[in-house]
TrEMBL record:
InterPro entries: Rossmann-like_a/b/a_fold, UspA. CDD domains: USP-like. Belongs to the universal stress protein A family. It comes from the Bacteria. Residues 23-159 form the UspA domain. It comes from Pseudonocardia aurantiaca. Transmembrane segments: none annotated. This is Universal stress protein.
């Protein structure tokens, strides 16, 4: 007796939530963030995902002298330059992307943006390990560590490196080193 095999039927999962095709990328004025952005852009290309870049405003975004008459204007200029920097880096990627600048706790802001966009994952850079990075964390806590500890979705932490394969296709900050 021979059994006749039926043609397989396609099965798809139905979900009430929008498909997660967004990568949320944390970005600050640091070359490690540029590297994370480049890696996220390459990953976005491979996954067919869009990027939502989040810059959380911190004190480092403002000039050192708070008594300067144009302190606020200088700070706003720096934030505008940060957005232009991200735009220049992503313009050639061909990926759809959005940009958000906000104030607050960076880990919480990234988690909120990921929830809002139903993100596939959050991508951030890291200062790395060693004495210099440890001392830096005393002044400014690690966003990547906070995300790992409290985030329910995947977090991709991009280690610092020299010139990466992904950065070769993106615009670099003048005077910045990778």
């Amino acid at each position: 007796m021979t059994a006749k095999l039926e043609k397989p039927k396609s099965v798809s999962a139905k979900s009430s939530k929008k498909r997660a095709n967004t990568l949320v990328v944390g970005h600050c004025r640091d070359t490690t963030s540029d590297h994370a952005l480049a890696v996220a852009a390459e990953l976005g290309r491979q996954l067919g995902a869009q990027l939502h870049v989040v810059h959380v405003v911190v004190l480092d975004d403002y000039p050192i002298d708070p008594d300067a008459a144009d302190w606020e204007e200088q700070g706003e200029w720096i934030l505008t330059e940060e957005r232009h920097h991200v735009e220049a880096a992503l313009i050639r990627s061909g990926l759809p992307w959005t940009y958000q600048s906000c104030r607050g706790n960076p880990a919480k802001a990234l988690a909120a943006a990921a929830d809002e966009h139903n993100a596939l994952m959050i991508v951030v850079g890291t200062r790395g390990e060693g004495l210099r990075a440890t001392l830096s964390r005393l002044v400014q806590p690690s966003v990547s560590h906070a995300l790992i500890e409290y985030q329910h979705r995947p977090v991709l932490i991009v280690p610092p490196t020299q010139l990466s394969w992904a950065q070769q296709n993106l615009h670099h900050r003048p005077g910045g080193s990778s």
